[in-house]
Amino acid sequence: PSWARNLAPTVQHSREAELCAGATALLTAYSGAHASLIVAELPNATKLTADNFHDSVATLACTVLEELSQCTHANVARMWNFIPGIYDKIPGGMNRYELFNKGRFDGFCRLFGHTDSFPTMLPAASAVGHDHDTLVMTAIGTTTAGKRLENPRQIPAFKYSKDHGDQPPCFARAVLSKFGDAPLLVVSGTASILGEDSMHRESLELQTEETLRNLECLTRCVPNTDHFSLGHTESARIYYPFESDRPWLQDTLMKILPESTEIEFIPAWLCRPELLVEIELTIKA
User: Of 76, 61, 52, whose CA–CA distance to 107 is shortest?
Assistant: First the structure.
């Protein structure tokens, strides 16, 4: 997103990282006064075998955060993941998103230790699909560790049942962090999910309403402050799979979010095929 690029605009270095046989990623580090950003690109990801894709994701998750840990702003606040062929079936019964989650889970277990550390260590995140062949994983870091937040309307993603895959998606619903002196609530990609179940499967309008309820609930979970609300949204990224839905989403959300909000509308395949919209935000105090 542009807000992340604006915080870390300057290229520091690039290097290749071999993940497994036949899989080499390009890592680029960016920096700014208040943030560091790592962008990793793994080309030809859909051509990897299931085992190599899993191993590549696990190693890449570790490599990206280890690379960030060497930067001035070493504490990860948020990650973005762009997965090629997200719904493609993989030998063994999983789709590529489920296999990505298994790899990310194993990588984070390797990096953070036991899953008991997940509530205090996982970043906010988004994971969406695209039609190209490159897996992209990006992380932004700050100088201080942020506060991880969960939504009481939802089961923490890292505690999902096996109804949603062999291993759960690993992210916090939001992270309260600081880029410089000002606190910023960095909200993960949020959709029409209650508990762990998709709601309103065929209604864009009802899914959008449910998503906004989830976002409003998250803003009320910030400890020791009542200064966060959707009315203080600084940036928003709207993911949607069907171009025909964009005019309605644009008209609706531009009326709800503050006029000053920097809004990006990004066509993308979402983590579940029944979901029609996903929203991520940054909210200032």
Answer: 61
